[in-house]
TrEMBL record:
Protein name in UniProt: U-box domain-containing protein
InterPro entries attached to this UniProt entry: ARM_PUB, Armadillo
Domain U-box: 189-333
Segments of this protein annotated with the region Disordered: 1-35
Source species of the chain: Zingiber officinale (Ginger)
Lineage: Eukaryota, Viridiplantae, Streptophyta, Embryophyta, Tracheophyta
ARM repeats: 83-125, 125-167, 207-251
Bias kind Low complexity: ranges: 16-25
Amino acid sequence: MCQNPNPRSGPNPDPSTSSSICSTTPAAEEQRRRGDFTKQALVQDLARRLSAADLSARVQAAREVRKFARASAKSRSSFAVASVVQPLIAMLPSPDHDAQEAALLALLNLAVRNEGNKDKIVKSGAVPHLVELLRTGKNNLRELATAAVLTLSASTPNRPTIATSGAVPLLVQILTAGSIQGRVDAVTALYNLSSCEDITNFTLPSEAVKPLLTLLNDSKKYSKFAEKTTSLLEILARSEEGRNLISNFGGGILTLVDTIEEGSFLSAEYAVGVLLSLCNNCREKCRELILKEGPIPGLLLLTAEGTKKARERAHDLLNLLRDDSKKKRVASKELEILVYDIATRVDGPVKAAATAKRIMEDMARRGKELSATKLHSKGCH
């Protein structure tokens, strides 16, 4: 029931204002019904033409679906019915380039900002056709297929289907050979798939290391894109082959150190995780490679103001980077001066002493925890 939003205006408000206050009048309701009837008729007409024998009629109908889907969120919901979606998917393996392109664009626009439509498209069997386009499609079709996989993978229920479809290695190929937009879309799609909780051991082909490090080097370290890229690099650092490729890639460690210093909290957390994985598994080789790029100030800063996981990782990496030989060991006084300088930058000169003391205590505590863990591991063996 419509209510007067201004009860003090009296029992007989102006009729001209009451008609605007009420959300539904008989005339408005009739107009809405006519609009719904017209839209239903349009959907039925497009569905009929999408199933026509004439290919040019199907292509034109797909282009119209794209146009209507772009118009509004309500249109996207109205046109995402089985009689429209299934013929569009059936056009994806067509030998005709225009038919494939029109169908891809229509499906993309139906899926954008509509989780239900994304799920309908995947359940209707689009993924195998998209994978085939990633594998064999010409440049613009591969780019559109990448964008479609990205869009569909934004819906969590779709990720297991896509991740197990064979799309991952093909997306990695896009990282190397695609356009800039294609590579950005591939990174985001891979990131979406890597966060699927239903896949316990998500793995990436090691061929992703070089293009990811290159993209990270060229990106703004505090961007969301850098967060996704470093997250994928941390996954790659779990394997020996991935670690070797990261440590041997020219400028790769420097890029990660720069990310620790300039990146967002998440980027820094992932980047220090990569370096920690390198140092944990090959300390003798990687320690010098990492130290050469000057990571200490960034790591100390991270111990003071990073995420909880980043602070712990930074402490652990700092302990691994310490030289065990008495001859080369950094003097305690020199370390205190460096920590004090970092603390001044974080909390200002007034609180610097207290912050520096806390950082040194945390480093000592983490060092004891690591030593205890190592002793326990030796005892278990």
